[in-house]
Amino acid sequence: MSVRGEILINAEYLDIFLDESQEHLQSINDNLLKLEQAPDDLSIVGEVFRSAHTLKGMAATMGFEDLAHLTHNMESVLDLIRNLKLEATSSVLDVVFLAIDDLEAMVTDIATGGEGKRDVSHVVSQLELIEQGETPNTSKEELEKMIQQGESNEQLVEKYDEFERTVLEQSFEQGYGAFQIKVTLDERAMLKAARVFMVFDVLEQVGEVIKSTPPAEHLEEEKFDQDFLVTVLSKVEGEEIKQRILKVSEITNVMVLPLDRKMLATFDEELGAKQVAATKQEEQKESVKTVIKEEKPAKQKTEMNKTIRVNIERLDVLMNLFEELVIDRGRLEQIASELRNNELNETVERMSRISGDLQEIILNMRMMPVEQVFNRFPRMVRSLSKDLNKKVILEIIGAQTELDRTIIDEIGDPLVHLLRNSIDHGIETPDKRLAAGKPEGGTVLLKAYHSGNNVFIEIEDDGAGIDREKVLNKALTNGVITEEEAQKMTDQQVFALLFSSGFSTADKITDVSGRGVGLDVVRNTFESLGGVVTVNSVLGKGSIFSIQLPLTLSIIDVMLVELQKEKFAIPLTSIVETAVVNKNDVYSAHNQKVIDFRGKVVPLIFLNEIFDVPGEMNDEEFYSLVIVHKGDKVAGLVVDSLIGQHDIVLKSLGNYLKEVFAISGATILGNGQVALIVDTNALIK
Distance (Å, rounded) from C-alpha 169 to C-alpha 178? Predict the structure, then answer.
C-alpha cells in the first residue's frame, strides 16, 4: 500500500479505532474480573482472547506498533490459560491488569494526538516470565513501584515554540532556573481539576508557569489522564519545588527536570525534524484529497450498515435548534387559539404531534446506558478491596437504564465517591463481619431503574450502617445543630447532616475516603442536575444512598401557574396533584398555615410572599393549590390560578442570577413572556 493510502486510512478510521479499542479494553477488563471468580471457565478466557486478538490486529493495521506488541505479549499469556497450560491465579491476573492499564494509557495518548508510545518494559518482562512458566518475581505493589521508577528515568517530552524559547533564554540571562515538571495524580483522585489548581497555586508561589501540556483549559475540564507537564521559571531549587507539590493530596509522583541551553537546543533539533515530517505529511494529505475528488463514485454501502457514529456536539446543535422550535410551537398554539380558525388549528395540532414525535427521537438519540459509567466500577472495587484487606462483592443491576448524555458525563465522580464510602466505612473487615454473624464478604449493590420521568440510582451495602448518635454528637460538637433541634430530628434528618459542608463522622480520615468527607460536593453535583439524594440506614445492617435524576435537562413538562400577572412553571415530576380548598379549611399550627389533605397535615407555602410578587391578596374564598413533594415530604403551593400543562425549554439564568432562592431557571412562553421555573426542592427544604 502507498504512503498516501496509509495516511488516508489513518485519517478516516482513527475515530472508529479509538471507539472500538476502548470497547475491547472494557470487555477485557470485565471478563478478567469474571475469570478471577471462575478461573476454570474457558468460555470467559475465549472472550478475553478474542478481544485481545482483535485489538492487536486493529493496532497493527493503524500502525501503532507499541500497542500491538504489548497486546501480543498479553495474548500469549491468555493463550496459555486457554490451552490449560497456565492457571489464572490472582498474581498472574495482577500482571495482566497492569498490562491493561498500559494499553488504556496508550489509547488515551493516541486520542490526544500522540503516537501511543510508552515504556512498558517492566510489564513485558513479567508477562515473558509467566510465558516461560515462571512465577512473577514481584508483588503487584512492587511491580507498580518498578514501573513508576522506570517512568521517572524517561526524558520529559515538552516542546517549545519560538516565543517560549525566547522567554526561556531571557530567564537564563536573568539568573532564573527553568524546570520541566511532570505531575502524576492518584488514579483514584476524585476532583482532578481541583488538584491541578492546587498544584498551579504552589507553582505560582515559587515562580511562573510558562507552559502546560495539556493546555490549561483542558486541565480545567479534566481532559487528561493522570499526568500533566508544566514548565516553570523559578529561583527556588528543583527539589524544594518537588517537595512542595508532593504536599498536595492525591499526588503520587513528581518528576523535575532542570533545563539549560544545551537541552533546549536538543529540543529545537527534534522539533525541527518533527515539523519537516509534519509538513511532508500535510502535503501528502492534500494530494490524497485531490485524488479522492477525481475518483469515480464509490459503490453503494451494503445493507449491513445499520448504524453510524455521530459527534455529540452535532447532537447538541440539533437539540438547541429543536428548543427554538418548541418555543415557536408554543407561540403558534397561542395564536391559533386566539384566532379560532379551524384550518389553522388543525395544522397546528398536526405540527404539535409531529414535533412531539421529533422531540422523542432527538431525546432518545442523546440517551446512553448508565453502563458507560458503571463499567469502570468493578475494577475499582477489586483494587480497593485488596488495598483495604476486605472481601467485597459488587452486584450491578439495571446497567442498560438510559440517561441523557449530559447527565451521564457528570455523575461518574460522585458515584465513585459514594462507592468508596460504602467500601471504606460501610463494609466491615472479614473478622468483624464474622463476629457479627455476617458472611465474611460484604456486598455492595449498584442499581439503576426508571420511574416515571426519572432515573433512580441506588448504592446499597450490607455493612455497619450509620450510627445516628455518632452523627448527632459530631453535629452538636461542630455547632451544626442545637440540643433542642437534635431531640426533634427524625432519622432522615439526622442522616441528611452527612451532606453538610466538611462534615465527617470518621475518627481517622483515610486516603480512600471518610464517610461524609466531600458528600456536600456529591449532593451539590446531583442537585445541580435537578436530582435529589437521600440516605437510609440501619445500624449493623447497612445503608442505601438513593439518587433521583431527571431523564433529560433540556425540555421538561411543567404546570404553568399565575401570581397576579406573573407566570411561573412548576416541574410535573415534583407535583403530586392540584387542588382547590376552602379558606375555612386552613388551620394554623406552630405559626404555619396547614391543611388536612387526604389524612395528612400539609403545610402551605404562599408563592406571592416567597417571590415578593406585588399586588393585592386574592379575596376569593378558595385557594388554588399545587401539591408538591420531595421524597416523603409534602407541601401545598398557593397560587392565584392554574393555567395548564406545557412542554417548556429550560434555560439557565446565568452566573449573575444563579443564587436566586427557589428558582432553577426560566423559559420563554408562546407570547414571548418569560416564566421562572420554581425549584420545589429548595422550597420544601
Answer: 10
